[in-house]
């Protein structure tokens, strides 16, 4: 098995380096906290060794809160630590990228080829022979699932068999997950890398863990010829040379920092950071987008009729996120070293006319009405909701039976103001960051072309969620996998290796 924590001397030069298979975090192979999705929340604990936390600047529109964005720091990246929800973008999402080769119809073969789908999908929309299994994991909490769907239907949202068909929307579905029928997480390392590391048929595949990439090495012709990295053991910087290609895959937060430390970016940012300018690409680190999330807990009936659920103390958290944010942020280096601070502005609620805030205001009210119509609803945990003024008709309640003849709350101006303040204090990331090295023409502050090559540099590509120019209306894991599949075909074609 060619998996290392330190590169052997004979591997100081390789054909292709994927800075993502050079992983800053640990190996994830057969780690129980990874392969069993139910443990995913432990990766968000402050002491987690599988997650990297990027601290954004405090902002007045966020009630002076410091936003924190968590990203995967383990083999398999975010796919190893997410909630494993299976969700695809809409047809209009990929078409809106307006990039040759990346329309929905052109990406559909990759969407299908990566998956073995076990759900009730629309014929022709899904794949049945891919590496990644998609299923319900062998379990559904039907009591709460049926109750929620019935409440959605009362407010005009029909149950839709397959919201992931690329064309369906405005409905509710019984979700599937990146989980095998045996209940194991389908992260990219376990389904793509580990089988090849162990089958004895891929001696040229080498994986390095516990090593953080500082920069890409560029020669005098502005060609990528290797990387410089630092082992997490604290040893000195090391290098590995690449004969043919370097592919950066550090995600929406990590990739722009690697490029800027390499001398690729906006000149004034690099000069302030003390990094020589090797390629003037001003779009690097701009256009940060994330699905802005709020969540709040509700009290449920303790008698669910489900023997796997404890008999008392039942709660549920409702999550709202803004699928298509208007606000934009940025992430940049402030110095040449890995230890230097990061200039990170998430941009949440920073858009003109407060459109993102208004969408979250609407979502809070709408989702609250849905939950009030469920049979399991027994009220709200008031301490985690907006601080409504005394006597408000929309105040949080606690009840001992399902509500009957439910009427929508009527919110006063003071009630709306309380929700807005709460949103500014509570909004955060849904871990769906993208866009910081967008694929677009250079004249539009693009960083990579349709073949994922970085402008102004030879032999350097980017293949991760930093390349989408616009958000997708879905959890982004599927989009990351599609980018990886498409990137593999591009690289295979350019290197004259035929077809996969």
TrEMBL record:
Protein origin, superkingdom: Eukaryota
An example Gene Ontology molecular-function term: flavin adenine dinucleotide binding
Binding-site list for FAD: 213, 431-432
Record-linked InterPro entries: FAD/NAD-bd_sf, GMC_OxRdtase, GMC_OxRdtase_N, GMC_OxRtase_C
Keywords in alphabetical order: FAD, Flavoprotein
Domain Glucose-methanol-choline oxidoreductase N-terminal: 251-265
Obligatory cofactor(s): FAD
Family from the record: Belongs to the GMC oxidoreductase family.
Record protein name field: Glucose-methanol-choline oxidoreductase N-terminal domain-containing protein
Organism of provenance: Monosporascus ibericus
């Amino acid at each position: 098995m060619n998996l290392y924590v330190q590169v052997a001397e004979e591997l100081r030069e390789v054909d292709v380096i994927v800075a993502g298979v050079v992983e800053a975090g640990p190996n994830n192979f057969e780690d129980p906290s990874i392969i069993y999705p139910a443990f995913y929340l432990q990766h968000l604990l402050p002491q987690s060794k599988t997650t990297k936390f990027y601290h954004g600047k405090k902002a007045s529109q966020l009630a002076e809160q410091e936003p924190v964005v968590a990203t995967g720091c383990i083999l398999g990246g975010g796919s190893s630590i997410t909630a494993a929800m299976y969700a695809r973008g809409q047809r209009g999402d990929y078409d809106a990228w307006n990039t040759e080769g990346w329309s929905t119809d052109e990406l559909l073969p990759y969407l299908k080829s990566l998956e073995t789908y076990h759900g009730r999908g629309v014929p022709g929309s899904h794949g049945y022979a891919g590496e990644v299994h998609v299923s319900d994991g062998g379990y559904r909490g039907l009591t709460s699932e049926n109750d929620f769907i019935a409440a959605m239907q009362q407010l005009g949202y029909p149950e839709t068999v397959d919201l992931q068909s690329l064309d369906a929307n405005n409905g509710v579905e019984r979700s599937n997950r990146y989980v095998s029928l045996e209940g194991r997480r389908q992260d990219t390392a376990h389904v793509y890398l580990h089988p090849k590391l162990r089958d004895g048929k891929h001696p040229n595949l080498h994986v390095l863990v516990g090593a953080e990439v500082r920069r890409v090495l560029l020669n005098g012709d502005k060609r990528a010829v290797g990387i410089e990295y630092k082992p997490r053991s604290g040893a000195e910087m090391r290098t590995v040379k690449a004969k043919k290609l370097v592919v950066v895959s550090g995600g929406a937060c990590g990739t722009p920092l690697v490029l800027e430390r390499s001398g690729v970016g906006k000149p004034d940012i690099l000069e302030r950071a003390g990094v020589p300018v090797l390629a003037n690409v001003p779009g690097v680190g701009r256009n940060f987008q994330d699905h802005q999330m709020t969540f709040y807990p509700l009290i449920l009936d303790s008698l669910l009729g489900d023997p796997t659920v404890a008999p008392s103390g039942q709660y549920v958290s409702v999550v709202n996120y803004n699928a298509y944010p208007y606000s934009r942020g940025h992430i940049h280096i402030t110095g040449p070293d890995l230890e230097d601070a990061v200039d990170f502005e998430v941009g949440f609620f920073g858009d003109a006319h407060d459109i993102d805030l208004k969408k979250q205001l609407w979502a809070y009210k709408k989702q609250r009405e849905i939950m009030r119509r469920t049979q399991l609803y027994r009220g709200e945990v008031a301490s985690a909701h907006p601080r409504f003024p005394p006597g408000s008709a929309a105040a949080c309640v606690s009840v001992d039976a399902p509500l009957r003849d439910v009427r929508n709350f009527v919110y006063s101006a003071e009630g709306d103001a309380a929700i807005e303040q709460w949103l500014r204090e509570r909004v955060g990331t849904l871990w769906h960051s993208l866009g910081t090295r967008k694929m677009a023409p250079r004249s539009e502050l693009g960083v990579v072309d349709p073949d994922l090559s970085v402008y102004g540099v030879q032999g350097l590509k980017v293949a991760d969620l930093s390349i989408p120019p616009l958000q997708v209306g879905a959890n982004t894991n599927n989009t990351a996998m599609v980018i990886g599949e498409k990137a593999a075909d591009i690289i295979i074609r350019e290197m004259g290796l035929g077809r996969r």
